[in-house]
């Protein structure tokens, strides 16, 4: 989020100094090396480095010293009680406090509990510096286009003039800008992520119902999605939502509500459905292998295509695929997996969350000898698999568990494989 924001602001014509604590990372960025898979980011970093609008610095204080506007883009991981852990944002604020020039604007882009804009003000102790909240809505994999084409820019400011100053920074985007008080802006971020998670949990619950009653979720989504009030987006059934935002933000929303005396039972249900959906995927694999619920899987070989939490990223954080894989491994199954972005470099092979998984060089190598093949991430290349080749390398009577409804069930069956999707008859 920080790198995308920095490079895109430079692309808009601002002079941007992007800071990180990690010296090796800063050195790599100065060479134009991008540490994550993110479409279009390498190009925009290269062009802004080349024209001198983007530079990199070790340490926040140095970067902040000459700045008119300072964006805080630090992680807010989940703390032990489900709430957001504010140590990085408070640390960053403390680091820049003395360095800020008079009248600078500090912008918090990190997702923080309601009231945190004030907490940043308290740490800064700089009455001459305005602090505003500016939640981000970037998705991994499409972060650059999301930044450059926002549906809206949300700014939370006690001082309207400070909000307008930040709106000017975004002016080249010609986007709608909503200036609110800080508590509303902070709530907008959680409410947006909570609502989107709710849509996915809803469709996953409907998919479970479709399986029970013999309906087809594809048709149901088409039927409800064409109602303008509902819309088609974020209604793709799958193995449950994951990633670095929805899981932690949905729990934080429940926690913030509870802290203020509101029992957010609906959001708890959204989270429960998601956990159940992840278990349902494991159940599908068990059924496909001919085992009932619980008990060992005695060395059965399961092939898994896709390990990241969604396509278009190399991010494994809270990936539904990994939840499923860990459960299968714990039951004694062998898992051979392929993901186009995982395990290729040193980063992947030393990632502890991949322990126990045999990584294959391609999809066919993963499938070889397997009794079940799971499509766990919707990488477009999996939709183009040669299903005859898959059937030829897999064990007899093999099953494809399509946790993303990526394949055409008729084509899978025509290749001599069995098929089980999500909410499809
Ligand atoms: C999300 C928000 O979309 C973004 O606005 C916010 O800034 C950060 O969190 P991201 O985590 O990158 O972005 O992923 P997103 O594309 O929203 O998907 C989240 C999860 O939901 C993934 O696991 C994805 O596979 C799943 N999903 C999404 C579905 O299962 N079905 C859908 O229809 C959409």
Please characterize this protein's 3D structure.
The protein has 18 helices and 13 strands. Helix 1 (2-11) crosses helix 3. The protein folds into 2 domains: 2-180, Rossmann fold, CATH 3.40.50.720; 195-425, Rossmann fold (3-Layer(aba) Sandwich), CATH 3.40.50. The model has no long low-confidence stretch (mean pLDDT 95). Helix 18 (409-414) links the parallel strand 12 and strand 13 (418-420). It has 425 residues and is of the alpha/beta class. The site of uridine-5'-diphosphate-xylopyranose has 19 residues, from helix 9.
SSE blueprint and pairings:
Blueprint: H1 2-11, E1 16-20, H2 23-30, H3 41-50, E2 54-58, H4 60-64, E3 69-72, H5 87-96, E4 105-108, H6 116-124, E5 130-133, H7 143-148, E6 153-156, H8 160-169, E7 177-180, H9 182-213, H10 217-225, H11 246-259, H12 265-289, E8 301-305, H13 320-330, E9 334-338, H14 346-349, E10 358-359, H15 363-367, E11 372-375, H16 380-383, H17 387-393, E12 399-402, H18 409-414, E13 418-420
Parallel strand pairs: 1-2, 3-4, 4-5, 6-7, 8-9, 8-11, 9-10, 11-12, 12-13
Residues 136-140, 193, 196, 200, 234-236, 238, 241-243, 245-246, 309-310 line the site of uridine-5'-diphosphate-xylopyranose (UDX).
């Amino acid at each position: 989020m920080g790198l995308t924001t920095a490079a895109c602001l430079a692309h808009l014509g601002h002079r941007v100094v992007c800071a990180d604590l990690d010296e090796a990372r800063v050195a790599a960025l100065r060479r134009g090396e991008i540490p994550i898979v993110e479409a279009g980011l390498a190009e925009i970093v290269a062009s802004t480095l080349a024209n001198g609008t983007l530079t990199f610095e070790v340490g926040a204080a140095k970067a902040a010293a000459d700045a008119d506007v300072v964006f805080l883009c630090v992680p807010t991981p989940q703390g032990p009680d489900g709430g957001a852990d504010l140590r990085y944002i408070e640390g960053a604020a403390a680091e820049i406090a003395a360095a800020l020039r008079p009248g600078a604007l500090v912008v918090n882009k990190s997702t923080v509990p309601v009231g945190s804009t004030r907490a940043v003000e308290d740490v800064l102790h700089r009455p001459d510096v305005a602090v505003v909240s500016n939640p981000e809505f970037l998705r991994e994999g499409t972060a650059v286009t999301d930044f450059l084409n926002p549906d809206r820019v949300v700014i939370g400011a006690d001082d309207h003039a400070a909000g307008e100053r930040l709106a000017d920074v975004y002016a080249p985007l010609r986007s709608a800008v909503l200036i609110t008080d800080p508590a509303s802006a902070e709530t907008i971020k959680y409410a947006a992520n909570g609502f989107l998670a709710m849509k996915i949990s809803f469709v996953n619950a409907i998919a479970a119902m479709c399986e029970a009653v013999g309906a087809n979720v594809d048709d149901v989504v088409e039927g409800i999605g064409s109602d303008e009030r509902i819309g088609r987006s974020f209604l793709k059934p799958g193995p449950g939502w994951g990633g670095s935002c929805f899981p932690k933000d949905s729990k934080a929303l429940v926690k913030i509500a509870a802290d203020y005396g509101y029992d957010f039972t609906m959001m708890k249900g959204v989270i429960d459905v998601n956990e159940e959906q992840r278990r349902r995927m494991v159940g599908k694999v068990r059924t496909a292998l001919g085992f009932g619920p619980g008990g060992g899987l005695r060395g059965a070989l399961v092939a898994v295509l896709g390990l990241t939490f969604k396509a278009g990223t190399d991010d494994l954080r809270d990936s539904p695929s990994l939840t499923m894989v860990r459960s299968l491994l714990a039951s004694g199954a062998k898992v051979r997996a392929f993901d186009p972005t995982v395990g290729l470099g040193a980063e992947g092979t030393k990632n502890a969350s991949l322990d126990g998984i045999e990584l294959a060089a391609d999809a066919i190598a993963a499938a070889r000898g397997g009794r079940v093949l799971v499509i766990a991430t919707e990488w477009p290349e999996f939709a183009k698999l040669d299903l005859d080749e898959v059937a030829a390398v897999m064990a007899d009577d093999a099953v494809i568990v399509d946790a993303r409804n990526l394949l055409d069930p008729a084509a899978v069956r025509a290749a001599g494989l069995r098929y089980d999707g999500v909410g499809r008859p």
